[in-house]
């Protein structure tokens, strides 16, 4: 086996770790954006009245496509004037509240039709990778990468 191939073999897991950390960082950023509550919006209680169910295509770690069933709840709540407002959630996932479940709703007091489900009511939004975990993971990956690279260069020069 050529020396340069022996050098590349330890790099493959490190590159895979870096890709996994990059994907986790992107997902964490999306979850934080979803969890942001607009300033001045009001919290109230709503109920899931129905749901839209559909399948979505995703990629696994090997690049193969697979189908996932996801649900998008339709939520109803009453504003202070007593009007019933019904809206579909912007968030859809496999683990969403089912019809009949009570959820917290956030809405714009100037336009109650602008509403969203509160992030705490969605189990998948609260579980995201922290920024520090990603930073530490990337630093470890870079240090390991540089260590393997230095060892390989020393091995090739010997």
Automatic annotation (TrEMBL):
Keyword annotations of the record: Membrane, Transmembrane, Transmembrane helix
Top-level taxon of origin: Bacteria
Pfam families: DUF3592
Membrane-spanning ranges: 6-25, 134-156
Record-annotated DUF3592 domain positions: 46-120
Name of this chain's protein: DUF3592 domain-containing protein
Native source organism of the sequence: Nakamurella flavida
